[in-house]
Amino acid sequence: MTSPSAALIRIDHAVLRSTRRALGETPAVGVARGLSHFGEHALGWLALGAAGWATGRRRDEWVAGIAGVVAAHAAGVAVKRVVRRVRPSLEDVPALVGTPSRLSFPSAHSCSTAAAAVGFGPMLGRPPLVAATGVMLVSRVLLGVHYPSDVVSGAVLGSGVAAAVRRRMTRDAGRKA
To answer: pTM for the full model?
Structure first.
């Protein structure tokens, strides 16, 4: 009988390889690299939140969204340092972008992107941000820097943290009004 962890590793490797075969010679690689830079340390999402705040509309909600992105990114980095799973290292799926560390689980890009979808969705629309989250998750696998289980776990963690932060901050803002 195969252990659950061995089965997950087989699935992770198969999805990594199939994603690279399907998209590795397409413009998707350039898009994925751009998303990688945008999402590094959640800076692109924080810039988007700051721009939203600067409009002067729904400032409390933008602040809650920004706080959710920061908290989700921090949670992802903290879990990454505890779990210490090393990034994929498959000969036929070399990394196509540099990374700031060797650690893989969970994907901090996925944490912050899912958090942005939760936090900024009410202002920008949920469907486009959910789509952006899906594209970011696929991009991390395509680039060979995360296992599929890293990106799914990161998205779950990030959306959960952001939802809790948003709920708390918007509830508190409502009491002050």
So the answer is: 0.89
